[in-house]
Design a protein that fits this description.
Chain lengths: ~280, ~400
C-alpha cells in the first residue's frame, strides 16, 4: 500500500515541499512547508488506524507542553479509502536513538533529558494519561536540548475505555522499555509508574550507550525475560554525588510498581533535589 | 522499631511484669488463650500499668473449632463462604469493636483470613472485612494480612497484596506470615526477602506495620522501617502455626524444654549444651550481650543445668533481651540501620561457626543456617527499596 506524493500535494494545496520522512504500520509521515506554520508535519493515518489516532489526539490535547502541537485535523477520500490527516509542529532535531549512535550523552544532556521526561510524565499523570511507549525512538531533542515526547498511539487514558482486552495475554508495549506489568497486561497495575520504568531504562541507555535488556538478546521473549528477571548493574558516574542519580534511576527501573516512586510527581521532585545537588540547570 | 508482646498460653503474669518493668509497651491479646472474662481483666490491668492493648481476632481459619475462640461472641457460629455476607461481617465487627472498647484499645485489628494463595476471592474478602470495620468504628484500623509460606514466596502475590493496600486507606497492617515447612527459623532467602519486601512496600504507602508471631530473625525488619515485631514465650507465638487454632492441637507445654537465648548468636541452646560449653571453657562466649538479670543464675553455676534456672526465667530472659535488641535495632538513618544489621549478622555467624566447630549447637533453634537467608534478604531490600527508604526514613 503506497502513497503518491504528487497526488497528495494536489489535495493539500496550501502545503508545499512535501517529503515522506517515515512510514509505520499505522501511518505515513511527511515534512512540508505551510504558509502560516512554516515547516510542519503532515501525518496520514492508514485505514483502520483511526481509533488509535483519536486516542493519540486526546492524549496530546491533555499534555500540551512536551509534545508537538496539533494544528489541524481532517479526512479525505483516496483510492485507499478514507484517510485521516493531521498537521502538527515539526520539531527540528534528532531522535534520541539517532543521537545515541554518536555515543552516550554527557552529564548536562542527561540531566536535561531526565528533567524533560519526568516533567512530561508529571503533566501526563495529572491528566490521567500514561504514554506507555517511552523509548529513544519516541523522543526528539531539539536544537535547544529540549526533549519532546512523540507518538502517543498506545497511550492509556484512565478515564476513557481501555482498548486492550482485559484477558489479553500481553498488553501493548515496546520490548526492552515496557514495564513488566505492561507486557503482562496487569491492567490494574498500570499507571504513571509504568512510564517511570521506561524513563529509567531510557536514561540508563542514554548514559551507557545501549539497552542491556536488548543487546545480544535472541528474540523478543528473551528481552521480556530479561526485563522481568535482571537487575541492571547500578550506574557508576564520576559526576554523580553520593550516587544520588544512580539511586533514582535504579528506583525507576524496579520490577514492580510499588518498588518505584509512588508517582511521577514524587520521582520528579526527587530529581529536582538531585539536580540541584549535581549543579544541573 | 518496638517489641510488642504476643500473648500466648500462660503469659498473663509475665506480660504484666514486663510491661511494668519497661514502663509501658503494647500487648497483643489472644482470644485463643484467654476466656472472654480473662481478656477484659488483663486488658484493664495492662492499661493500669501504662500498657496498651491490641486484640488479635485470630480469624485465620474461619472454620476453626477451637473452643475458646468460638466462645467469643464476635466469632461466627455458622461460617460458610457463601453465607458469610455483609450483614454477617458487620455483626462480627460490631461485636469485635465492642470487645475492643471494653479493653480500651486505641486501634482495632481487623480480622483477616489466611490466604493459601492471594487470589480474587481472598482479596474481595479482605476488602469486605475492611469495609465492614470502617462502617462500624472510627478507631484507627489495622488490617490483618495472613499468608501461607507459598504466598509469601511469590513475587506476584506480594504485588497483589500491595496493590490491594494501595487501593485502601488503612492506618496499619498486621502481618502474619507462615514459615516454610513450619520451621521456627527460616533459611529460605526468597521467603525472607519477600517478607521484607512486603513490609517495606506497606511502610512506603505510609501504613504502620506490625509483624505478628515473630522471633529474633525478624530483627532485620527494622531495615524495612517496620513499626513493631511481636513475640512471646512459646514457639507457637514466635512463629505462626495455623494448626494451633484447631481444637486438635496439643499445647506445646506437654513437650517442654528449657532453652537459653544467646542474643549475640541469635540462637537458643538447651541446658545440656551449655554444660558442654562450660566443660570446653566456652561458656563465656555464650553469656548474654546485652546482659540480662534473668540469666545471671544460669551463669553463676559451674554446671548451668544444675543452676535451677527455670522456664519462667528463660522466657523473661528471652523477651527482655529481645526487647533490648529491638530498641537498638533502628539507628537514625536507613544506611546505618542496614550496616548495623549486616555487622550483627557477620558477628553472629563468626560466633556460630566457632561454636559449631566445638559441637555446640542450637539444634532446631540454631541460627547458623538462617544467617545467609537474612543477609540475602537485606541485600535484596537495599537494591529494591533502599534509595526510597533512605529518602523517606524519618518521615
Amino acid at each position: 500500500m503506497g502513497i503518491n506524493v504528487d497526488w497528495l500535494a494536489n489535495n493539500f494545496s496550501d502545503l508545499s515541499n512535501l517529503k515522506l520522512i517515515g512510514e509505520g504500520g499505522q501511518k505515513w509521515v511527511f515534512i512540508c512547508t505551510h504558509p502560516k506554520y512554516n515547516q510542519i508535519v503532515l501525518k496520514l493515518i492508514k485505514p483502520g488506524g483511526e481509533q488509535r489516532l483519536m486516542r493519540e489526539i486526546e492524549a496530546v490535547r491533555r499534555v500540551p507542553s512536551c509534545v508537538p502541537t496539533i494544528h489541524d485535523i481532517g479526512v479525505f477520500e483516496s483510492e485507499l479509502g478514507q484517510l485521516v490527516w493531521i498537521l502538527e509542529d515539526y520539531i527540528d532535531g534528532r531522535t534520541l536513538s539517532d543521537l545515541l549512535k554518536d555515543g552516550p550523552l554527557a552529564k548536562t544532556r542527561v540531566l536535561k533529558l531526565a528533567h524533560d521526561l519526568l516533567c512530561a510524565a508529571v503533566e501526563a499523570e495529572a491528566r490521567n494519561v500514561f504514554h506507555r511507549d517511552i523509548k529513544p525512538d519516541n523522543i526528539k531533542l531539539d536544537h535547544t536540548g529540549k526533549a519532546w515526547l512523540l507518538d502517543f498511539g498506545i497511550a492509556r487514558i484512565l478515564d476513557m475505555e481501555s482498548r486492550t482486552l482485559t484477558d489479553a495475554v500481553s498488553g501493548p508495549h515496546s520490548p526492552g522499555y515496557g514495564a513488566p506489568e505492561q507486557f503482562r497486561n496487569r491492567k490494574k497495575d498500570i499507571d504513571g509508574r509504568a512510564d517511570l520504568f521506561a524513563i529509567g531504562v531510557t536514561i540508563y541507555e542514554a548514559i551507557s550507550g545501549s539497552n542491556p535488556f536488548i543487546v545480544g538478546a535472541r528474540d523478543r521473549l528473551e528481552i521480556l525475560r530479561r526485563v522481568e528477571t535482571i537487575q541492571l548493574p547500578r550506574l557508576t558516574l564520576d559526576w554523580d554525588v553520593n550516587s544520588a542519580f544512580a539511586d533514582l534511576i535504579s528506583s525507576l527501573m524496579q520490577k514492580f510498581p510499588y518498588q518505584r516512586p509512588t508517582s511521577c510527581r514524587e520521582a520528579y521532585n526527587w530529581f529536582l533535589e538531585i539536580n540541584e545537588l549535581l549543579g544541573g540547570n | 522499631m518496638e517489641l510488642f508482646l504476643q500473648l500466648g498460653f500462660g503469659m498473663m503474669g509475665l506480660s504484666k511484669d514486663l510491661i511494668s518493668m519497661w514502663g509501658g509497651g503494647t500487648v497483643i491479646l489472644s482470644p485463643r488463650d484467654l476466656e472472654p472474662i480473662q481478656i477484659e481483666k488483663i486488658g484493664a490491668e495492662l492499661l493500669s500499668l501504662n500498657g496498651k492493648n491490641l486484640v488479635d481476632p485470630q480469624f485465620y481459619l474461619p472454620r476453626s473449632d477451637h473452643h475458646r475462640l468460638t466462645s467469643y461472641n464476635y466469632w461466627p457460629q455458622n461460617y460458610d463462604t457463601q453465607g458469610f455476607d455483609d450483614s454477617n461481617r458487620e455483626k462480627m465487627l460490631e461485636a469485635l469493636v465492642a470487645l475492643n472498647y471494653k479493653i480500651g484499645t486505641c486501634e482495632v485489628i481487623v480480622p483477616g483470613e489466611r490466604a493459601e494463595e492471594v487470589e480474587d476471592l481472598w482479596l474481595d474478602s479482605q476488602v469486605a472485612l475492611l469495609k465492614a470495620a470502617q462502617n462500624t468504628t472510627d478507631i484507627p484500623l489495622i488490617a490483618t494480612i495472613c499468608l501461607s509460606s507459598e504466598a509469601v514466596r511469590s513475587n506476584e502475590q506480594i504485588n497483589s497484596v500491595i496493590q490491594l493496600a494501595e487501593s485502601q486507606s488503612v492506618y496499619g497492617y498486621y502481618l502474619v506470615l507462615e514459615h516454610p515447612g513450619n520451621t521456627y527459623l527460616v533459611n529460605d532467602p526468597q521467603w525472607m526477602a519477600n517478607s521484607l519486601d512486603l513490609a517495606a512496600g506497606l511502610r512506603r504507602i505510609g501504613a504502620k506495620v506490625i509483624i505478628g508471631y515473630s522471633n529474633q530473625q525478624q530483627l532485620i525488619m527494622a531495615c524495612a522501617g517496620v513499626t513493631a515485631i511481636a513475640s512471646g514465650t512459646w514457639m507457637n507465638v514466635r512463629s505462626f502455626f495455623p494448626g494451633k487454632f484447631r481444637s486438635s492441637y496439643e499445647e506445646e507445654i506437654k513437650r517442654r524444654a528449657i532453652w537459653y537465648y544467646c542474643p549475640q548468636a541469635l540462637s537458643e541452646y538447651t541446658l545440656p549444651y551449655l554444660d558442654i560449653s562450660a566443660r570446653l571453657g566456652l561458656l563465656a562466649e555464650l553469656m548474654p550481650d546485652p546482659a540480662s538479670v534473668y540469666a545471671e543464675q544460669l551463669f553463676s553455676s559451674p554446671q548451668p543445668s544444675a543452676s535451677g534456672w527455670s522456664e519462667s526465667l528463660a522466657f523473661r530472659h528471652y523477651l527482655s533481651t529481645l526487647h533490648a535488641q529491638v530498641s537498638r535495632s533502628t539507628p537514625n538513618e536507613f544506611d546505618e540501620t542496614v550496616i548495623y544489621h549486616k555487622g550483627f549478622l557477620d558477628r553472629a555467624q563468626g560466633l556460630l561457626q566457632y561454636l559449631r566447630e566445638n559441637e555446640i549447637k542450637g539444634l532446631t533453634r540454631d541460627f547458623y543456617e538462617a544467617v545467609d537467608a537474612n543477609r540475602a534478604a537485606l541485600i535484596t531490600l537495599e537494591r529494591t527499596h533502599g534509595p526510597l527508604l533512605k529518602r523517606h526514613w524519618n518521615e
